[in-house]
């Protein structure tokens, strides 16, 4: 797993552990290179060069487009916070309940989803900048 560039806000020294909020999700998503926030039908979405890597169905949940293996593993590891989401018969993303997500999970998943959707040259530059 590639760590998120903004780090985990809940682990900043001197800051009390806090439940993540949609504002945190937005900060994490938009801190990834060339990320934008745009409407997608009735949802919000986060994109890299026009490709969606996460959607926001409401203020309590974010759907993150990681690969099928990670969707299933994340849902199995965190069943209280994460559910697999199907689009028709295709496993498409993991829905994460923001307030109960374990510390660090959302930025990690956003980074992995961003890496899947970013052009290879942008992803390579991002990984090389660690």
Detailed description of the structure:
This protein is of the alpha+beta class. The protein has one domain: Aspartate Aminotransferase, domain 1, CATH 3.90.1150.30. It is built from 4 helices and 6 strands, in the order αββββαββαα. It has helices at residues 22-30, 68-77, 105-117, 120-128, and strands spanning 35-40, 43-48, 51-58, 61-64, 82-87, 90-97. A 6-stranded antiparallel sheet has the order 1-2-3-4-6-5. The longest helix is centred in the C-terminal third of the chain and has 13 residues, at 105-117. Residues 1-16 have low confidence and may be disordered.
What is shown here, in short?
With 130 residues, the protein is an alpha+beta fold.
Key features?
130 residues, alpha+beta, 6 strands, 32% helix, 6-stranded antiparallel sheet
SSE topology:
Blueprint lengths: L21 H9 L4 E6 L2 E6 L2 E8 L2 E4 L3 H10 L4 E6 L2 E8 L7 H13 L2 H9 L2
Antiparallel strand pairs: 1-2, 2-3, 3-4, 4-6, 5-6
